[in-house]
Specification:
Strand content: under 5%
Distance between the termini: 84 Å
Structural class: mainly alpha
Number of strands: 0
Radius of gyration: 29 Å
Shape: elongated
Largest sheet: none
């Protein structure tokens, strides 16, 4: 009986508290409902835009890799013009079909709010376009020229950040290392040019203040040092053993040496 009376008293107290609490007027309720409806709409719009940018970034990565695979057939011969032309067409399609869509999604939006959504694809495109520019001109495409290429009709612009540019350069060196090994013994001038170029990139990046570099740069610098060492070893093999082995066997000999060192 006492327990029931206690429950009844608590119920009466809670009912009294609820009745004593001021209830919002209908105008206040409508205003609050409108505010939360607007916040919900903005959040949904932000999530939808983020998903679209992620998909565009993924497609950009795939298409840029295709262009890179085409350029890895480069041999430093006059017949390579067809390879560069094919890569040019693919990169131009990526620029118009995908990067322009990214720029349109970002129009009027905070750039860094969505950066992580499209940065992976943009870095892969930078790697491909820097690779293509080097094969044509034997030098590095500047950030200013790169941003100039990413201006579209209607005032649309896709800006490349300094961090993405540095990460793209670091990724470029991996493709240059593969090309160096693939052309080892077939084009000595190209092999030496590639090695000297990657060495200059490594020296320049190492001279930068590490506290100002992107977070992923330390890992990429380790990979870059390993790639450069492999390229320099290839140049050594070319100089010392080039007369002993045919060109097709030099790369195979390097792989065997690497395997033995790993064991």
């Amino acid at each position: 009986m006492e327990r029931e009376n206690s429950r009844k008293r608590r119920k009466d107290q809670s009912t009294g508290s609820a009745e004593a609490a001021p209830m919002p007027t209908s105008e206040e309720g409508k205003a609050i409902h409108a505010m939360f409806s607007e916040l919900s709409r903005q959040l949904t719009e932000k999530q939808d835009r983020h998903e679209r940018l992620v998909k565009l970034s993924r497609d950009t990565t795939i298409r840029s890799k295709r262009a890179i695979f085409v350029m890895q057939r480069f041999q430093g011969q006059p017949s390579d013009e067809a390879i560069l032309a094919e890569a040019t067409e693919e990169l131009q399609r990526v620029r118009i079909e995908l990067l322009q869509s990214i720029a349109r999604e970002l129009q009027g939006q905070p750039y860094y709010l969505y950066l992580r959504a499209f940065s992976p694809g943009l870095q892969e495109y930078l790697e491909a376009v820097l690779f293509h520019w080097f094969l044509q001109h034997r030098r590095l495409l500047s950030l200013a020229d790169l941003n100039a290429q990413l201006q579209f009709d209607g005032g649309l612009t896709l800006r490349v950040s300094h961090d993405d540019f540095l990460l793209g350069i670091a990724d470029l060196t991996g493709e240059l290392m593969r090309l160096c090994i693939n052309t080892l013994g077939r084009s000595q001038d190209l092999t030496m040019t590639l090695t000297q170029f990657v060495r200059s990139i490594f020296t320049s990046l190492r001279a930068l203040n590490p506290f100002t570099l992107p977070r992923d740069m330390s890992n990429k610098m380790s990979v870059l040092a390993s790639s450069l060492a492999k390229m320099e070893d290839g140049c050594y093999q070319l100089r010392v053993r080039g007369s002993e082995l045919p060109p097709a066997r030099l790369a195979e000999a390097m792989e065997q040496d690497d395997g033995g060192a790993g064991e």
